[in-house]
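tool_call: predict_structure(chain=1)
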Amino acid sequence: MTRAQFLKLMLGGAGVLALPPLAAQSARYDFWFTRLRYDSGDWDVDARMPSNVLTSLIDYTNLRVDPEERVVALSDPKMLAAPFCYLAGHKLVEFNPAERRNFERYVRSGGFVFVDDCNHDIDGLFAKSFEAQVAAIFGAGALKKLPNSHPLYSSFFRFPDGPPATSFELNGWGDDLVHDYLKGIEIDGRLAVLYSNKDYGCEWDYDWRNKRFLADDNTKFAVNIVMYALTA
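tool_result:
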């Protein structure tokens, strides 16, 4: 299933997923921010970030944006209706059977997940455990480095040098290195999982309202991520 087909299905078309009526309730929006709650680790980080990202989408785009963050359990089939999902933390990630089943089904069916490592740990626990989970689901070589020419970096604003740096990247992927790239998992030629070790959540958690429309507004890259998720 392509992303366009997935979004058409989720925004009101009859389809094969037999989901609860969440999509119909959301048909008046082009985008809503869904944070995934998972049983292990600490999923509820960077509380102000979604609000700041949603404000940027309203400021910079013509999308009909739901102004409220939605928190949905990864184990809940309702998450399958989201056009975009966010998963973050800095502790253990260990999917239970229902979480693993929904994560795989969502990704393979056309969904998009942005995974951000808060990396405030010492030994890269979030990175190591999340990578182990996706390797078990999609294969050991599924996570790949994204080139700076990837369409993600030109989906709205242009980032010719790849992912913008942040102030909070403390431990990389547990290797004490600052990386100039992101990773991802592609399904049928589309980026389905975007994986960051740069702690964008903390960067966007600050109040950027006084920097709206300025070149140093780091939430511009969040706009790119969302626009790619909706259009690729």
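agent: The chain has one domain: 3-231. Proceeding to next step.
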